[in-house]
LysR family transcriptional regulator
Amino acid sequence: MQARWDDIRCFLAVARDESLSRAGRRLRLDAATVGRRVARLEHDMGVVLFTKSPQGYALTGEGQRFMTHVARAEAAMGEAMDDLAGRGGALSGQIRLGAPDGAANFLLPQVCAGIVEENPDLEVQIVALPRVFNLSKREADMAIGVSPPSAGRLLVSKLADYRLHLAASEVYLGRHGPVNGLHDLKGHRMIGYIPDMIFDAELDYLGELGIERVALASNSVSVQFNWIRQGGGLGVVHDFALPAAPGVRKVLTREFSLTRSFYLIRHEDDRRVERLSRFAALLSEGVRREVTRLERLT
């Protein structure tokens, strides 16, 4: 049995995207070609790698074992290419970064744009999703999380601490009156997460205030932020986001303040991939610098 690398690339893309069409877009191939190559790989190997359901393509047990091995091979190939290209030069190729949408909207655009400015042949993709990324399935090359994972073969490093406060727009406060103490919150419209869609306990901000009813709720930080900016109510906001909304101000800063952390998470197999390690170092430095700069403006 001899597997073709083009077929393995298609297998990896389908395993990560759980869809022929999404895998095709990733590889710039049509979905039918991706499907044929996966079918050829299964025929050559004599095993079924995926089961198909209305939700998409899921790895079988054999597929999961194969994924472990070929992901390592992919990382080794990347390391070899880095070595042959010469270390220390400009970064190139494509890097996909997963992140919660708060970081993805207010920190990563300027940080990653700066990295690409210095490395013109580099392509950075930011996947902004309010959930934990599965790096074992290679949904991304690396991810930012709000708490360190406790399981998996992962490299985890702390990026930065960041602060959050209650905030409201001047428009809202002008209509509904000042907020003089935490006891006043019951009389105000609150904005926050959909309770059963909080994917990490670190994000249960309003729970720390004992607030049970959320009048305007979303699983997206950006939606919450825009509600606050438009005068919808009171909510907990990242300090680093506040410079993007001059009409929004913090309230009750002495009574309520939170400190949370961002963590950079990578797959352990990528430890020796020079290109990813260099990008991770630039990203870490950039995020720390940007959090500090933006928080000083609030």
Observations:
- Residues 61-85 form the longest helix (25 residues).
